[in-house]
């Protein structure tokens, strides 16, 4: 039955996926394109040509373009007579095309005079296919010249030609400047509803209304529509979406009205113009009816489909989804139908989004810059897909397991069958009263055969270590104390020293930190797991007893709980837990066989666990509280601890990369490789997010400094970090409420504390990649809370980055196009990226308010063993 579910669910989701593509791409009937239109705006620039760089088309290029348009239009409108463009009237005559001749007017008065001189020379040739002259194109709108200057230019040309003369401006410029109308023979208006943010369905009516408004204002002047069109790609302008389907719909609808009303118009424009990217942004490139390769961009008579290639894209998204799902389903025998359905839904959504984003990005013209950016985005996109899949997989397995694969029943074992245990307690400069509590807890263990070795390494002050030595002597012969100075290797060095002095009878080595108070049943309950000869590690969670001291510690407690009650539980299902250096037990023989603790590694516990997996051993994780320690007292110490963990994770990944990637033969299973790589992906993602943030700030500065040339990133790409943030937030809140059984306040507090560590983890990721050595630092306990000024100083990097992002968001909103959707989405990205940095500042400040009650967050109960649905299991004793 379960095997059939593996096929039925993906098929159902695939059908839904294809149906969604079909619904979004249903064909729409539109009026047919006329056999021959009134006119095209004509700029014959090819891909590598740019009039601003004085790179003009050859006469052959122009002739070929005119030949293509012959029979499809009555006329063309030009914009300049510079260089080869002055030959357009002569070449157009060969193809029986009329020409509205244009002269470019800009802010350079000397260049304007040169352009007018060339215009006179062309007019002097008396081409019969010239029908009118347009001096300047939106020059008044751009404020390149004043109205009076434009009137002067117009009058000078009117005096030398019998052809009607005008200038071209948007409709509202004519309404504002009636004096200009007195010096033209006709009015040339531009009707471009896209630039005014008019939605497509209202655009044609809007254009007609503006045409009639000008006609009513100046009834005695002929009106020519000098530009009318819609872009096929680019930015969304309020309600106006730039797309190929919308370009098709608008033009075909407008042309039907224009033909019935007998308008004289010029469609904007014949060919896409790549050179406009620098002056008009990406949108300015895509107004052509034909692309830069001179191919028609849309159908002229067939029904309009939003994405003509939707069938191929739908098929590709399904294939991609199936491949991803096959990987996730290959080891999902214990996952329920709901869990498999959730994974299928997420997988198909991710694959569909990925296919659409790639399609959307590659729909633009590829330059060297866009190709480089595209490759980087592809690499980043693959990382996002892997991260989302890993997060979704953990979500599913945390909530929708039908049964645990590796249940841990408690077994009653006679004392004479229980192995001898050597408990190691490494200590460095720990307060004596703290260690005495720890040792008293060990003395109360309900276990027949054990010893305790306390290794104090490198503590200089005898007043700190001698009271501990004396206390061990009072506790009896089971307790042995060693003060070693100097001793290299930090904690791993101390543990290796203890290993060399361990009782030969010991079959199991247990390790606890110096601040942990264990429960009497710890060894009695968990050591029997070693009766299975394949088990080398038995791990209980880290837990803490001081969460009730203040709100900061309650928040930290909630943040810790997620890993030990979610991540470790799902890892245990595939024998892939991360060993941590307290509340852990290791088979002595296995520990000796792999060479003991690695003194090169700052996280020697996790590294040892991986080596034992490589050697083919098993590990068990029991998510029940058997001992409790102390949390860091300040945020500075909290982040130091996490920095060490993250740094060590990177060093482990690098050191064991051949084993994890299967390049070196080991006993690692695919599930273990998956968890050790995917499990640390969120931390790696924090590192890459820092890179993204630095690029985002640089991009934002460029947007502010050069608003005319630097536009926001593609909207589909800018949405990715927002979606990723919301997905991770939803997952965290859901799992905390469902599996950790945390309250909403505790769930939010845990998420906030986790966000506050993002920048610390990011820095640790990069440090781990480029440095090979990090000095060990003990996480201080019972430290004095820092002053508020110190707390701000501890978070100064994050505070500066938060300020930079907020300043960038405010500055970007000052752009003239701040009303556009893509700008606002980019501002939203900047604001969201600010949240982790602000969280750091606030949590750091919170750590100074030691009088703030923990009740604001709420107490968390001890961790109990639970089944897959979060229901407490009864204790099962096996004889």
UniProtKB/TrEMBL annotation:
Source species: Thermochromatium tepidum ATCC 43061
GO terms under cellular component: plasma membrane
Transmembrane helix keyword on record: yes
PROSITE patterns named in the record: GLYCOSYL_HYDROL_F17
Entry's Gene Ontology BP terms: carbohydrate metabolic process
Reaction catalyzed: a 1,2-diacyl-sn-glycerol + UDP-alpha-D-glucose = a 1,2-diacyl-3-O-(beta-D-glucopyranosyl)-sn-glycerol + UDP + H(+)
Keyword Lipid metabolism: no
Protein known as: Beta-monoglucosyldiacylglycerol synthase
Keywords assigned by UniProt, alphabetized: Glycosyltransferase, Hydrolase, Magnesium, Membrane, Transferase, Transmembrane, Transmembrane helix
Cellular localisation: Membrane
InterPro entries for the chain: GH (IPR017853), Glyco_hydro_17 (IPR000490), Glycosyltr_2/OpgH_subfam (IPR050321), Nucleotide-diphossugar_trans (IPR029044)
Short name of any one Pfam family annotated for the protein: Glyco_tranf_2_3
Membrane topology per record: Multi-pass membrane protein
Enzyme's top EC category: transferase
TM helices/strands, residue ranges: 7-24, 313-329, 341-359, 365-390, 680-702, 714-736, 748-770, 825-846
GO MF term list: hexosyltransferase activity; hydrolase activity, hydrolyzing O-glycosyl compounds
């Amino acid at each position: 039955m379960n095997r059939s579910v593996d096929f039925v669910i993906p098929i159902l989701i695939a059908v839904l996926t294809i149906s969604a593509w079909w619904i979004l791409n249903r064909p729409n009937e539109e009026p047919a394109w006329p056999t021959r239109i009134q006119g095209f705006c004509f700029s014959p620039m090819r891909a590598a040509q740019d009039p601003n760089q004085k790179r003009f088309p050859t006469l052959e290029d122009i002739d070929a373009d005119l030949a293509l348009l012959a029979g499809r239009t009555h006329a063309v409108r030009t914009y300049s007579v510079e260089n080869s463009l002055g030959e357009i009237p002569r070449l157009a005559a060969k193809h029986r095309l009329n020409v509205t001749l244009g002269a470019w007017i800009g802010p350079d008065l000397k260049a304007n005079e040169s352009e007018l001189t060339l215009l006179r020379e062309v007019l002097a040739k008396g081409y019969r296919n010239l029908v009118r002259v347009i001096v300047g194109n939106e020059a008044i709108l751009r404020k390149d010249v004043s109205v009076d200057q434009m009137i002067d230019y117009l009058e000078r040309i009117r005096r030398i030609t019998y052809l009607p003369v005008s200038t071209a401006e948007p409709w509202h410029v004519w309404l504002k400047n009636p004096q200009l109308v007195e010096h033209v023979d006709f009015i040339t208006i531009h009707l471009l509803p896209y630039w005014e943010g008019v939605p497509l369905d209202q655009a044609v009516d809007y254009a007609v209304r503006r045409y009639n408004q000008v006609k009513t204002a100046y009834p005695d002047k002929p009106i020519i529509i000098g530009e009318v069109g819609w872009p096929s790609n680019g930015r969304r302008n309020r309600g106006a979406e730039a797309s190929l389907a919308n370009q098709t719909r608008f033009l075909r609808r407008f042309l039907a009205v224009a033909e019935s009303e007998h308008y004289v118009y010029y469609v904007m424009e014949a060919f896409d113009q790549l050179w406009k990217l620098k002056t008009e942004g990406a949108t300015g490139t895509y107004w052509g009816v034909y692309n830069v390769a001179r191919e028609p961009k849309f159908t002229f008579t067939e029904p309009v489909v939003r994405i003509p290639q939707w069938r191929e894209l739908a098929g590709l998204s399904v294939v991609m989804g199936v491949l991803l799902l096959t990987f996730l389903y290959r080891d999902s025998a214990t996952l329920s139908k709901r869990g498999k359905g959730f994974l299928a839904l997420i997988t198909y959504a991710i694959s569909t989004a990925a296919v659409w984003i790639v399609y959307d990005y590659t729909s633009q013209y590829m330059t060297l810059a866009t190709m480089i950016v595209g490759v980087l985005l592809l690499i980043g996109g693959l990382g996002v897909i892997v991260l989302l899949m890993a997060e979704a997989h953990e979500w599913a397995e945390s909530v929708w397991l039908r049964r645990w694969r590796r249940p841990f029943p408690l077994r009653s074992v006679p004392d004479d069958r229980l192995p001898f245990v050597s408990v190691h307690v490494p200590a460095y400069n720990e307060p004596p009263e703290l260690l005495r509590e720890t040792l008293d807890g060990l003395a109360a263990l309900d276990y027949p055969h054990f010893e305790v070795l306390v290794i104090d390494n490198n503590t200089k002050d005898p007043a700190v270590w001698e009271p501990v030595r004396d206390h061990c002597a009072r506790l009896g012969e089971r307790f042995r104390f060693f003060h070693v100075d100097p001793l290299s290797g930090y904690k791993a060095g101390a543990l290796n020293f203890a290993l060399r002095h361990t009782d030969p009878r010991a079959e199991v080595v247990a390790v606890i930190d110096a601040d942990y108070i264990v429960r009497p049943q710890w060894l009695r309950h968990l050591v029997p797991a070693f009766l299975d000869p394949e088990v080398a590690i038995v791990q209980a969670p880290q837990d803490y007893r001081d969460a009730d001291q203040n709100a900061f510690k309650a928040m930290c407690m909630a943040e810790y709980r997620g890993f030990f009650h979610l991540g470790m539980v799902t890892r245990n299902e595939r024998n892939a837990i991360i060993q941590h250096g307290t509340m852990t037990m290791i088979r002595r023989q296995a520990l000796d066989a792999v060479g003991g603790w690695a003194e090169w590694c700052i996280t020697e516990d996790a590294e040892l666990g991986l080596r034992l997996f490589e050697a083919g051993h098993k590990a068990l994780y029991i998510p029940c509280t058997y001992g409790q320690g102390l949390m860091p007292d300040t945020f500075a110490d909290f982040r130091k601890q996490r920095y060490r963990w993250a740094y060590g994770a990177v060093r482990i990944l690098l050191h064991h990369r051949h084993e994890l990637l299967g390049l070196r033969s080991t006993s690692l299973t695919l599930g273990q490789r998956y968890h050790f790589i995917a499990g640390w992906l969120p931390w790696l993602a924090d590192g890459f997010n820092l890179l993204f943030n630095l690029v985002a700030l640089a991009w934002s500065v460029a947007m502010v400094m050069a608003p005319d040339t630097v536009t926001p990133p593609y909207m589909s790409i800018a949405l990715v970090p927002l979606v990723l943030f919301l997905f991770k937030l939803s997952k965290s809140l859901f799992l905390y409420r469902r599996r950790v059984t945390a309250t909403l306040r505790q769930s939010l507090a845990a998420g906030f504390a986790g966000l506050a560590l993002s920048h610390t983890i990011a820095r640790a990721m990069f440090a781990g990649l480029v440095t090979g050595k990090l000095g060990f630092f003990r996480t201080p306990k019972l430290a004095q809370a820092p002053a508020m000024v110190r707390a701000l100083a501890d978070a100064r990097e994050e505070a500066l980055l938060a300020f930079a992002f907020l300043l960038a968001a405010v500055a970007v909103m000052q752009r003239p196009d701040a009303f556009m959707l893509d700008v606002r989405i980019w501002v939203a990205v900047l604001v969201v990226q600010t949240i982790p940095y602000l969280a750091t500042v606030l949590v750091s400040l919170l750590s100074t308010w030691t009088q703030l009650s923990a009740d604001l967050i709420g107490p968390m109960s001890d961790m109990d063993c639970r089944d897959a649905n979060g229901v407490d299991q009864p204790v099962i004793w096996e004889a």
